[in-house]
Automatic annotation (TrEMBL):
Protein name: PPIase cyclophilin-type domain-containing protein
Family matches, as InterPro entries: Cyclophilin-like_dom_sf (IPR029000), Cyclophilin-type_PPIase_dom (IPR002130)
Gene3D superfamilies: Cyclophilin-like
Entry keyword Signal: yes
Signal sequence interval, chain numbering: 1-25
């Protein structure tokens, strides 16, 4: 009888051991795994994204403005503006866009589509996303090399690069910059021809197409195409 009782006790103890709930240490380890996975997901959603754009001056082969622009998009700081910009890259909106506005010592601007060679109508309106709230201690300002939407919103599809520090633009309504160009890219940007004064008909020429730009503004540079290098 004693042997039978001991055998029953051993079997019961084994059942309890197998079916017990995880210990606190095991809960902690599981939580850490979940937490790490969440961090990876968060990093993928909010990390920096590298974009490259090929800039050229197609109607003046002797012009110095040509090369690859390297752009770091700071999605963690400005997720709304960043995603709007990246969606424009993915849709090839900037491909073939002339740099129609160049103000010496101030900004260069592009984003107006010319007529498409396949007959597709140029897009003139884009989704106007909300304004990213200021990220304390992290917000990009309108300093040399920063990239922002013209007018402070994505609705026009136009962007500008600050050639110099322009702190007065930080006070204007709308979005703050969401990306930065590196030093090599800024050398290319500052080599873009800046001799065409505002109001000479650049926008009209761009909307009419390459032939009109070549005739009226042969030194105007163009963003040939853009692509996403990495999207963490």
């Amino acid at each position: 009888v004693v042997v039978s009782w001991l055998a029953a006790l051993a079997i019961f103890s084994l059942i309890v051991l197998v079916s017990r709930t995880p210990s606190a240490a095991e809960h902690t380890r599981a939580d850490k795994i979940v937490k790490v996975k969440n961090q990876i997901i968060q990093s993928s959603r909010d990390g920096h994204v590298i974009v490259e754009c090929k800039l050229d001056t197609p109607h003046d082969t002797s012009a110095p403005a040509h090369g690859i622009l390297h752009i770091t998009v700071h999605r963690s700081i400005s997720p709304l503006a960043s995603d709007a910009f990246l969606n424009m890259i993915k849709s090839e909106h900037f491909n073939g866009c002339y740099i129609f506005r160049v103000v010496k010592g101030f900004i260069v601007q592009w984003g107006i589509e010319s007529p498409h060679s396949d007959g597709q109508q140029a897009k003139v309106k884009f989704d106007k996303v909300g304004i990213d709230p200021p990220a304390t201690g992290k917000s990009l300002l309108n300093v040399r090399g920063s990239l922002n939407f013209a007018g402070g919103n994505s609705g026009t599809g136009q962007v500008y690069v600050n050639i110099n520090n322009n702190p007065h633009l930080d006070k204007e309504p709308g979005s703050l910059p969401f990306a930065m160009l590196d030093d090599n890219s800024m050398e290319i940007i500052t080599s873009v021809f800046d001799g065409y004064s505002a109001g000479m008909g650049q926008v009209k020429a761009v909307k009419q197409g390459a032939d009109e730009v070549k005739k009226m503004f042969p030194k105007m540079s163009r963003i040939e195409n853009c692509w996403i290098v990495n999207d963490d």
